[in-house]
Amino acid sequence: MPQIHNLPLNLPVRYCSAIGEVVARWARLEIGLQILLWRAMGLDNRQGRVLTVGMPARALFGALRSLKHNWVGDAGTETTIRALVKDAEAAKNERDAIVHGVWGHTKGKPRPLRILRMKFGDQRVMPRSYPLTPADMTTPAANLKELNKRADGLIRLVVAARKRATRR
């Protein structure tokens, strides 16, 4: 594990772009998950925002896992929401590493840039680092894009189920 000696003030634009894509896709997923919760609870946007403004992702995940099939239409949709939440939790870990990571390089070797992980106590004292290129960040960004598509589909399912339920 190389020791990090230099922390550049400016990251190359391609790194900033890749990090930004992860940030933007996560933000969209997070609001999508909030909307999913709002719709399942029968709330409009204003009511929903009151409920979820400032809500940490873990709390949002817990609320979504708590939804029962009578709120979301059926047991299959409930199971699908739980699967989405599980995958979103995993994606959050990678997102957090990229977004909150510290970028640096070993002394005298400005390339490749390395990201420092400081998730656990021992890593806070001696951070672990590994190379992470903009190309490497396309995988978590693509994963977040797919999670967004799944969330969009679930929102449509839940809205349709609530409309059917109110017609009865």
Which residues form runs of ≥5 with pLDDT under 50? Answer: none
| Beta-strand percentage range | 5-15%
Number of strands: 3
- Rg over CA atoms: 19 Å
Distance between the termini: 63 Å
Helicity, in percent?
Answer: 55-70%
* Strand-pairing-aware structural class: mainly alpha
Q: Spatial order of the strands in the main sheet?
A: 1-2-3
Provide the succession of SSEs: HHHHHEEHEH
Q: Output the number of helix runs.
A: 7
The main β sheet shows up as: 3 strands, antiparallel
Dominant shape: elongated
Whole-number total of structural domains: 1
Mean pLDDT: 90
Give a short synopsis of this structure:
The protein is mainly alpha-helical and 168 residues long. 66% of the residues lie in helices and 11% in strands. The radius of gyration is 19 Å and the shape is elongated.
